[in-house]
User: Fold this.
Amino acid sequence: MKRYVFAILVFLTSLCVNAQLQVKELKLSNGMTVWLNEDHSQPKVFGAVVVKAGAKDCPNTGIAHYFEHIMFKGTDRLGTIDYQKEKPWLDSISAQYDLLSQTKNDAERTKIQRHINELSLKAADYAIPNEYNRLISKYGGSGLNAATSYDLTFYYNSFLPQFMEHWCWLNSERLMKPVFRGFQGELENVYEEKNRAADGMGDIQEKVFGAIFKAQPYAYPILGSTESLKNPRLSDMAEFFKKYYVASNMGLILCGDITPDSTLTALLEQTFGRVQTGPAPERVKSPMPEIGEGEVCEVKLPIPLVGAEVLVFKAPTEFEPDANALTLANKLLYNGKAGLLDSLVNEHKVMMSAAMSVGLDDAAGTGVVIIPNLFGKMKTAEKRVMEQVQKVMNGDFSTEQMESLKREMVMEAEKELETISDRSDKLIMLFPKGRTWQDVLDNIESIKRLTKEDVVAAAKKYYDANHITLSKKYGTPNKETLKQPGYKPISPKNLDAKSALAQQLEQIPVKNTDIRTVDFEKDVTTKQLNSHVTLYYKENPMNEIFTFTLRYKDGELHTPALNVLSGYISALGTDSLKKQQLEQAWQQLGTTIEVSSGDMTFSLSLTGLDNQFAPSLQLLAHFLSAAKGDDEALKEAKDADKVDRKSFGKQKDDVLSPALSYIIYGDKSKYLNQLSKKEIKDLKSDALLGFFRELQQYDCELFYCGRQSVENVAMIAQQALPLSQCQKPQADTFREIQQPTEPIVYFYNVPKSRQNYVVSYDGISPLPTVEQRAKLDLWEKYFAGGMSSVLFQNVREFRSLAYSTYGQSVSASLMKYPQEPLAFFTATGTQVDKTMEVITTIDSLLHQMPMKEENLEAARQSVLNNIQNNYPTFRNMGGYVANQRMNGYTKDMYADDARLIPTVSMQDVIQFHQQHIANNHNRVWLIIGDKKLTDLKALARYGKVVELKKEDIIR
Assistant:
């Protein structure tokens, strides 16, 4: 009888899986393509509108990206109290921008810019700031965003299924008649985005793409040139919209908790069927030009000591016939385990080498990365690497090795289809290629049919050809600076107003549904293997792929050497298997292993096919007990640390986390307690292996997701793994959060930064009850959580002071440490010349927070939306429950928010702000940027200025 019941369950599971892997395609009457994917595993829907229009369709102008920003500003019925009165001002602004683009005289340009500012202030009298974002939150949405690439632009967010009708009206409306309001401010925000990209090595990509594509459209940056940013033409943007934003050139993707029936079809026709029709435009193509012999491009990188080259060859795009064959050829070279290039790393002949393909819609390249050992010769390393490439071209690899990697490719492809988010990402990238969902499924089958002849032919075709050599040169790329024009900030008048569309949406009935949170007892099977080992089990409903993690309860906060250990043991073999042999053993099983260390835990994670689960755990057990030290591997770990230390501080992104950690935790910062340069220099292999053996004595957790039964997993784990030696309780990692006792402004100098980071930090007294924490959660969302927040609106929308600004609370576990204090910080990236205005603005908001009922209600709904839309996937469920239990929770911590957030009043939020934030006179500030361009005397108005050095924040 049990056999028949099991057979029925397997059959029902397969039906469910088949449904989740089906994508229904519709064509609306206006020609818009709709893809629907039904999946009820999470209580959310992912919705996206994809447009076949990107940077390659407007080379070097940035228009596609500009327009993406404008699509958040509303329409003639959304984001305005009276469009007929607003329109003349907007038309005048558009005319002035066209005039500005034709004017070269600096004095005249300044005059025009000031006039644009005056007109913008007048137009703002009619605008409802951020109404679109607020309505998305009000009607179940979270994660609202958009992106522009070379080949496409897409707009997306997750939302609760009961708000499907609201979502459809909102997102179709924005495609009908977008209005270019707030352009002056949005232009400034794009400047900031350009600055951020430059500080984050964005200029390097521009140089690389310029070298590869020469005069083709892909050669130019997505954001456009600096000159184009200074001279935008709104009339060109209007033409871009008319040409590319037609229904036949757009796709609508809905994936998740939906029912693709006639009711949904009718709703989509009623809403998205209104979008303007017209022929899909012919698009410019950007194939990779022919590569000449011996082409070289030097690329400046602020990374000292190491040499690096990338040899770039032409490659096929994703769905070309030999694309999978070349991918398999690259896996034979580099798979992170036992590839031919991996062998050079495993045998310490090079520091790093890899082969991989990168593709766009019209062109693709395959690159071979070469990094010699520290102070090694590039020519020697390049010779060794190309010898391995030649072996693949000669077919010098075994059929067994190839078949193992084919299975791995299939496994990777199947894992990319598991969840709502996975399939949504795949569908978004698929649409502009003119492909169908069946092409994705067929592609998996084509991998299975690959032969050795296919692989050799692809390797010869692409690697036996000319290439471009990208050669690393130490230095910092030159950065053009975009200065602020000194605009007057917008003074919004209509923050609580409602547009005509907002009033229409209020009439749509909404079905009340309960917030779905995780049930620790029902959603995960927990099995205590002994008093120190717990198994978290979740069945895999999708495929035959298992994931298994062995997690020890000791981390870098307690044992700093674990940070070095994670990289070191990843480079080791065992007493009977050299490193390359061990990797070949993993490869034969079709299993990958990943080692990682965190603040509180240390993990070894396996991914493979369920029929190899038992031997995979046996091989893991062998490694745990028999890992063999390797002095060459230790030397490489020390060399890597040397490079990291030498590179530190060259970019402001490197500095932010250590500096912020210093402010939050003082001398308990993890960066001040990591191993010192001398301690790492003195490390011996035996000592590191001692840490590894000691680690295995700590309490541990096992996480399994797959098709084996929980009893079978428990039996295999207990038989294979050394679990009896787990006797030590979880290591103590508690750190008290610092409460400032005086106002201080910390400054860290990062020369040549185009932006400054501005961070504020406030201490918060203990909040020992779930009711108080709920007030914090709503206040935090209202003040700093998203596009409708006080912080985002006042810093970015009204004053254009930053592209990115956010805030976040810091706390210890409520259940474990209810009487411990908390903190709140904001972080903003801004042009250097806007630094003081950013500080003044944020300080003012923290002291006197504006209160708007509509925004508070959007924030309230947003907290609830996030609980639903962030509901864990089946593979993440075990870790989700275990992490909360580690912090003392016996039920889902978000269940209290779901219950309490609706009861928190506006007065509660105001009182919270007054009690914990507004009257704080010991606020701390952190500025990271170029000292030469920053007025330190002006900073002294906000506290004693203390200049931090490297040794203050990192050991």
